[in-house]
Amino acid sequence: MKNVWKRITIAILVVGLMLLGFSTLKPAGQAALAQDVQPTNRISVTGEGVLKMKADTARITLGVLTEEVTAESAQAKNAEKMNVIKGALGRILTSADEWETVGLSLYPQYDWSEGGNGKLISFRAENTILITLSDPTRAGEVIDGCVKSGANTVSGIEFTLRDTDKVRLEAIKLAMQNAEVKASTALAVAGRAIKDVLEVNVMDSYYNPVPIYKSYDMALSAEGAPAPTPTQPGTLEVQATVSVVYAF
Q1: DSSP 105-170
Q2: What residues of the chain score a pLDDT lower than 50?
Q3: 93 and 60 in contact (C-beta within 8 Å)?
C-alpha cells in the first residue's frame, strides 16, 4: 500500500511541474505580436508642388446663327454658311489641329408684345463647333478666318495643356520632395532622421486660366480692314498637395 501511495504522489508532482512549465511559456506568435505593437515615432507633414506652364493648346468655340421665316429656310441657310466655314477650316487648320460639332439647334421665335399672345415670327438655327489648336498663338488668326467665312457667334477661347496627366505627376513629385525636406529639416534639429514612410495621401488639382469670353470686334484697322483679333495664351498653374507620415 505504501508503494502505491508513493507512486501516486510522484505522478501528481510530475503533472504539476508540467502545468507550471506550460503556463510560463509564450507562443512564438504571441512574442512577435508584442514586438510589432511597440510604439513608433511618427512625424506628419504636408508637401506642396506647383508648376507654372505656358498653355500649349487653344480651344475656340464659335458658330453660325441664322434666322428665317420658316424652319426649313433657317436650317438651309445655316447649313450653307457652315459649309463655307468648313472649307475655310480645311485651309486654315494644320494636321495637328481638329474641330468638332458641339451644338446644333433649331427653335421658333415668338412676339409677345400684342396682349401677351405669342405670335410666331421666325425660326432660329444655330450650329456651334469647337476648334482645338496645337499652336495657341494662332487663335486670333483662326477666329478672323472663320468670321470672314460667315461665323457670327464666338463664345470664347480657353487656353489649356495638351498632356495634363504628365504635368500632374511632375507636380506630385515636387510635392513629395517638399514633404521630405520639411520632415528631414524638422528631425535634424532634434538629432533624428527619417527611417521609413508609413502613409501617403495625394491631393492634386489642376487649374485652367479664366476662359476668355469675348464678342468678335469688327473694329477697322488703319487700312480700313477689320483689325486682327488679339489673343494671348495664358499661364497655367498645376498644383499637387501630399500628406505624408514618416517613421523616425
Answers
A1: EEEEEEE-TTTT--EEEEEEEEEEEEEEESSGGGHHHHHHHHHHTT--EEEEEEEE-S-HHHHHHH
A2: 4, 8, 11-15, 17, 19-20, 22-26, 28-35, 213-224
A3: no
Amino acid at 136: P
Task: Compute φ and ψ for 125, nearest 5 degrees.
Answer: -115, 135
142 within 8 A of 133, measured Cβ to Cβ = yes
Grid cell 467665312 — which residue? 149
Pairing of strands 98-111, 119-133: antiparallel
Residue 240 φ/ψ, nearest 5 degrees: -130, 140
pLDDT, tens digit (0-9, with 9 covering 90-100), for 95-116? 999 999 999 999 999 988 877 6
Q: What is the pTM of this model?
A: 0.68
| Domains by residue range for the chain, with CATH | 40-55+162-248 (3.30.110.170), 57-160 (3.30.70.2970)
Picking from 171, 179, 172, 174, the residue whose alpha carbon sits closest to that of residue 46 is: 179
The C-alpha atoms of residue 192 and residue 189 are separated, in whole angstroms, by: 8
* CB contact at 8 A, 128 and 103: yes
The residue type of 202 is V
Distance CA 40, CA 182 (A): 19
Please report, in angstroms and rounded to a whole number, the separation of the first and last CA atoms in the chain.
70
Per-residue pLDDT tens for 19-64?
Answer: 445 444 445 444 444 445 556 899 999 999 999 989 999 999 999 9
